[in-house]
Amino acid sequence: MKKTFVYIIVAAVLMLAGSITAEAQPGRRYYADAGWQFNGAFGNGFSENASGWGAYAEGGYYFLPRIAAGAFISYNTNNNYIPRQTYHYPDGSALTTDASNSLFQIPFGATLRYRLGWKEFQPYAEAKIGANYAREYTWFPASVLRDSQWGFYISPEIGFTWHPFHKSNFGFQFAVYYSYATNRSNALGLEGISNAGFKLGVSF
Questions:
Q1: Cα→Cα distances 40→1, 54, 66, 122, 129, Å
Q2: H/E segment holding residue 22
Q3: Which of 15, 95, 101, 122 has the fewest CB atoms lying closer than 10 Å?
Q4: Any residues with CB less than 8 A from the CB of 17 and at least 6 apart, and which?
């Protein structure tokens, strides 16, 4: 009876140790994601619409089983058509024409990611911080106005990666995000840039 009890205790300890070891396994330590980005720009006073002209790439390392640090870069362009109207200038002249505003952004910097699991399906939350380079154009039929500047960039993001293939790091990614950049242009009326959108891509 005592031997049976000892065997049960030993078996239970071994099973518990095995489950702890399995839970402690970090899974994929590195990650790399890239793909298409759909971005909506709003609250900037210059070009406020949504556009699919964007892409992204990011990667990182899980220094703890659930927490990774890495880097990112992306770009997007948002265009806004302005119907025909009359522009008045300080010297008394005037111009009647239509126009198109174009806002181009390249944010890049550092990431901190927390994943909820490390199996095939991996939901995560991520914070991004860095710099945002922006260039603005106002296109007229016979001329163009342009400006560019740097700003501080911050972005929270939630999403998931899905790795459906056994013993392969290849998978898919979906995420939604919000971002804010401090870029400003007095000449073109830009007063900070808010963005929101989603990303579809592949994950390694």
A1: 71, 10, 30, 26, 19
A2: helix 2-24
A3: 15
A4: none
Burial of 5 (0-12, 13-18, 19+ CB in 10 A): exposed
Whole-model pTM: value is 0.78
For residues 22-37, give the mean pLDDT. 76
**In the structure encoding, which two tokens stand for residue 97, read together?**
């024409």
Check residue 175 and give its pLDDT: 98
Burial class (CB in 10 A: 0-12, 13-18, 19+), 195: buried
pLDDT tens-digit map of 159-191 = 999 999 887 889 999 999 999 999 999 888 888
- Residues 53 and 74: their CA atoms lie apart, in Å, by 11
Q: Which two tokens stand for residue 100?
A: 């198109």
**Residue 27 banded pLDDT, cuts 50, 70, 90:** low
Which two three-digit tokens encode residue 64? 């703890």
Tokens of 146: 């342009």
CA–chain centroid gap for 110, Å, is: 11
CA atoms within 13 Å, Cβ hemisphere of 183: 33
> Does residue 37 contact residue 56 with C-beta atoms inside 8 Å?
yes
